[in-house]
Amino acid sequence: MSKQVLASHEFCESELESPQVLSVAGGHAALFSRRCPGKSSVNEDAAAVFAVSDSTGVLVVADGAGGMQSGNAASSQAVKSMAERLLNLPDSSNLRAAVLDAIESANDRICAMGANAATTFAALEIQSDTVRPYHVGDSMILLCGQRGRLRWQSIAHSPVGYAVEAGVIDEADAMSHPDRHYVSNLVGCPEMRIEMGPQLKMSVRDTLLICSDGLSDNLSTDEIVSIIRCGDLAMSVQQLVDLATQRMKQGIGDGSIPSKPDDLTIVAFRRAQKPGRRARQKKTVMPDNPVSRVETPDSESESGFEQSQISGDVVATPSEFRPSATESAE
Fold this sequence. Notes:
With 330 residues, the protein is an alpha+beta fold. It has helices at 71-87, 95-113, 159-165, 171-175, 213-216, 221-228, 233-250, 325-329, and strands spanning 7-12, 20-24, 27-34, 45-51, 56-63, 121-127, 130-136, 140-144, 150-153, 182-183, 195-196, 200-201, 207-211, 264-271, 314-315. The chain has a single domain, classed as 4-Layer Sandwich (Phosphatase 2c, domain 1), CATH 3.60.40.
């Protein structure tokens, strides 16, 4: 192993019973990955935590496109490409280039696999007290404060995701929308493009989260933030798992409560408090009203995708999503 990568934790086709707590970048990550309840085939999600140095690291979640012949192979290849690139990293001074190169390499390899394989990809580059998000597809990344303020959230690369960002529909409508399984951008497609987010400052009280849509299709952003904003990190991730699994098992019902059975992967991260630092005594403060969307600078405008003939997660052109008059009015 290279001197630069202190630890590499990779989870492909995993069946975890509880969150795994891993040290990375001067903090701790809690990771969970398991296949959909009642599913007989393998977990098509993959995740990884790479400790590059004492203060730098990379977190990864990849969600193999459901319905494709090799979704699990695609997500595993995405994680493997990142591991190989970081293992050969001469130093941690240009982590951004390493992450981008790894995603490009994964795209080339997955395209070469054929078999209509593809995967989403979401990564967080952590350097001391700053983080930078990268994503392809609809796997979600968010950063929130201890009081529940949503500081940053990725925009899903999907027709429904763009409609939410444009204000055409709200998040509640999106979670029950019949086209929510369409994805406009995937690793393993020739037209793949990487969205690199802004560099974000992260305090010791903030929480980062990356997840597959097994979480974001079953819990609203407000629900996710209210659970992970404070408290023990592993216990918070377990609460997310329990609630998402409960929603998956309850069935579609009348649509008033979201329910979409799927593989579930979550990686949450917090920086460690400095040794010897004493927490200030504070009065009990009720959490701020969390918001479900924030302005996301440096976002790309996506357009012009070819349609892929697959079931499950579908690569689609924006023209395939045309809100009805009723939806537009809402």
